[in-house]
Every structure is written in structure tokens, then in C-alpha cells.
Amino acid sequence: MWKTALTSLVSAVIGGLLVFFALQATVPVTKGKVINQVVRESGGQKTTGGLTGGDIYKRFAPGVVHIKSVFTGVRSDFFGFSVPLQQEADGSGFIVDKSGLIVTNAHVVQDSNSTANKITVLMGDQQEVSAKLLGTDPSTDIAVLKIDPQGKTLRVLDLGDSSKLQVGDDVYAIGSPFELDGTLTQGIVSAINRTIDSPNQQFKIRGAIQTDAAVNPGNSGGPLLNAFGEVVGINSQIASNSGSFAGIAFAIPSNTVKEIVGQIEKSGKASHPWLGIGGIEVGKDMAKLLKLPVDHGVMIAQVVPGSPAEKAGLKAGSQSLVNSQTGQRIPVGGDIIGKIDTISVLTMDDILNFVEKHKVGDRVTLEVYRGKEKKQVTFALGERPQNLVQSPQN
Predict the structure, then answer these.
(1) Whole-angstrom Cα distance, residue 200 to residue 235?
(2) Is residue 287 domain-shared with residue 193, that is, in the same domain?
(3) Closest Cα partner for 256 from 142, 135, 93, 381?
(4) What is the pLDDT of residue 38?
(5) % of residues, the chain, pLDDT over 90
(6) How far is CA 184 from each of CA 53, 199, 230, rounded to the nearest angstrom?
(7) In the chain, where does DSSP find H-type helix?
(8) Any alpha helices (H) in 67-213, and if so which ranges?
(9) Rounded to whole angstroms, how far apart are CA atoms 138 and 270?
(10) What residue numbers bound the domain in which 353 lies?
(11) Looking at the structure, do residues 63 and 174 belong to the same domain, yes or no?
């Protein structure tokens, strides 16, 4: 399959250029807001052990909160007069620090056009307190809130190591589905390393955890815990044709959460390095068809305006082929990336894996074929914007 992607730290704009097998629509599970998205599948194995569901609930449910967000604005009525408009969204979250830091999903407190004007948190003891938004990272769907503990000792949930999860491990979701506070559901890890869309649908969240633990509107932002009570993910989306739970839910992995929360706490935002390209994976069939100088690599199909790739002079394809199966036009004729530093490039994932291990400002060298000419292009990774203006692929 030929694919396209925009390189980034932990996410990318990736879509199949020839054939893309969509599982079904996935939606964030915040009550009151819906965003259509797409995911794909894979597989794994089973582990056992740990606490019972009852133990998990007794020990850790007090650290889970119900979040209410109020969005206000104005609209024009029939006569052109401004009319106040208010929308509410419900989600979940969990306490990660005794100072009052709370982690939730970005889409609980922010939509594509605005940020919540008012955020309140309903604690485990049913006390309602105001929360301050410290920052969000829409590309990983993570937000950090701050409340005043008011002298109370808060129940803090520890972030575990999501890389240790195996398919079949017991997991538990705690949250406020349909505003039913303190709801516990149990399931297993159905798959790991899924790729799901960010709420703004401009990037991909890699490494997502798939579970069959019941997750419904209002669960967004709540913790997915392992059998030892460690948070291994943030419940974020479900795959469903109806919008209701159908046995497939997705959580943002805790290792991503750790990195992003630390950045937001420090600076109010998260920084992601990127190249700013869209690319097609080159194989032997494509190389033979187009008479390319190499039979592996990534052909650049798009260069994002203002990106490090554009500033470095990388070129996208100016010609196109038509996929006879889908009718989609496939950009060809762009530079072919064969290596990034010393790493051979076979797929977009090779580029993504490399980029996510680096920082903004790190210099990288690409081995690039332009026509039959091989050249080296060296430049610094830039900071990816939270929102991209993309040109269509023709």
C-alpha cells in the first residue's frame, strides 16, 4: 500500500493513497460533542495478575473526577441581532499530583473553534470546584487542569509504563459516562499500537491502546488502569457506527501522557518536531512503473508551506497518476528520501520513528534522489504548528 503522512513527534497525517481499509467511524467520548475519525487494526497476547476490580475501585476511584466545560459565544437571529449561545460538554479526568494537577482529554475542554470559558470539576466527594486550564495539546488530545486542593489530601493516580502492556491484560476504565459519576467497567487490552486521528483530524496519535472495556459519552479523559492500579492510558475514543459503545475503545498511552503533561506543566504547551512533508512509500512495482532510480524509500507528495522541508528546498511531485480502483489522484515525481541520517527509509514510519526521538532544532540529513541525481540535504527540525493549512493532494 502506498501511504501519505505529515511527519511529527508522536503523530502524523497519514492516509492510504491507493487503498485505505477503514474500520468504522470513531468518535471522542465526551458527552455533548462529536468528531468523526478513522482507525485501523492489528493483534497480540495475554497476561494475568494484580488486584480485583473491587480493589481497583476502592483504591483509585477517589482520584477520578467529573469535568464540566461551558462554551459560550454568540449567533445572529433572524433579524440580525446577537443572541448568546451556550454549549456544555461533560468528560472525566484524574488527579496526577497532590498540588491539584488533573489530566483529561483536550477535546473535553476545547473544540476546533474555541476553548471552554468555564471549567468545573466534581470531585470524588461530590464537592464542585473551579479549574484553571494550564494548556492543551490537540495533536495528542491531552489537556492539563489545575485546582486548588483547599488543604485536602488528594488521591493521586500514578502513570504506569504503557510499553509493558500486552494483549489480554486486564484493564479498568473509571469515569462519568452519561454523567453517572464513579462508573467502573472492566475489560482487556484488545490490541496495542493502534493509530487513531487527533480530534482536529490533522495528525495521528500513534501507540493507542484498544480495549473492550465499556467506554461511553462522558468517559473521555478518564483513566484506563492496569491490574495494579497504574494509569496506562486516557480513554479518548470509541469505534462505532451508531455513536454508542460497540466493544471497541481507544486510549492515549500513558507514556505519551507523561511526556506531554510535563511540557504543558512547564510551558503551557507541547512542542513537536517535524519535517512538514507528505509522502508515498516506494516499492518495486512503483519503481518499475515510474522508472525510478531506487526501489525503496518515500517519494514526497506534499510539502507544507512554511515548513522546514520547504525552507530546505525539498520538492513535491508535480505530476499525478490515477488509482483505477478508487479514482484518487496520486502525486508523483517528487524527491525520494532514501535515508534520514544513517537510517534507511522504507516507510513513513521509519521517518516518524526517527523524528519522534529528536527535538526541535536538531539537525538532520536526508539522502534524496531528485530524478536520477542523489544529493544530501541538511536542515533543522522545526516546531510543528497545532493547526495546519493543508493543500489538497491532486
Answers:
(1) 17
(2) no
(3) 142
(4) 31
(5) 63
(6) 8, 25, 15
(7) 53-60, 106-109, 254-267, 284-290, 308-311, 348-355
(8) 106-109
(9) 9
(10) 3-19+272-383
(11) yes
Q: Which of 266, 294, 319 is the last residue of a domain?
A: 266
Question: 297 and 202 share a domain?
Answer: no
Measured between alpha carbons, how far is 143 from 284 in angstroms, rounded to an integer?
43
CA-based nearest residue to 336, from 313, 368, 304: 368
Q: Are residues 371 and 344 in the same domain?
A: yes
Quick: pLDDT tens for 335-384. Answer: 999 999 999 999 988 998 899 889 999 999 999 999 989 999 999 999 98
What one-character-per-residue DSSP string does 254-287 give?
Answer: HHHHHHHHHHHHHHSS---EE--EEEEEE-HHHH
CB 304 within 8 A of CB 388: yes
Point out the domain boundary residue: 214, 231, 266.
Answer: 266
Give the model confidence (pLDDT) of 150-200 as tens digits.
989 999 999 999 999 999 999 999 999 999 999 999 999 999 999 898 887
- Cell 496495542 appears where? 192
Q: Are 42 and 194 in contact (CB under 8 A)?
A: yes
The answer to the question of residue 138 being in a domain is yes
Total-model pTM: 0.79
DSSP state at residue 63: G
Out of 50-54, 193-197, 209-213, 384-388, least confident range: 384-388
CATH number at residue 354: 2.30.42.10
Tell me, rounded to whole angstroms, the distance of Cα 340 from its chain centroid.
24
Domain check: are 299 and 153 in the same one?
no
Mean pLDDT of the residues in the chain: 84
- Position 41 scores a pLDDT of 33
- Give me the active site residues, please: 107, 141, 220
d(CA 219, CA 244) in angstroms, rounded, equals 12
Q: Is residue 228 part of a domain?
A: yes
* 244 shares its domain with 359: no
Question: What mean pLDDT comes out for the span 215-227?
Answer: 96
DSSP sequence for 60-91: HGGGEEEEEEEEEEEEE-TTS-EEEEEEEEEE
Phi-psi region of 179 (alpha: psi -120 to 50; beta: other; left: phi over 0): left
Q: Cα separation of 355 and 272, whole Å?
A: 9
What pLDDT was estimated at residue 228?
96
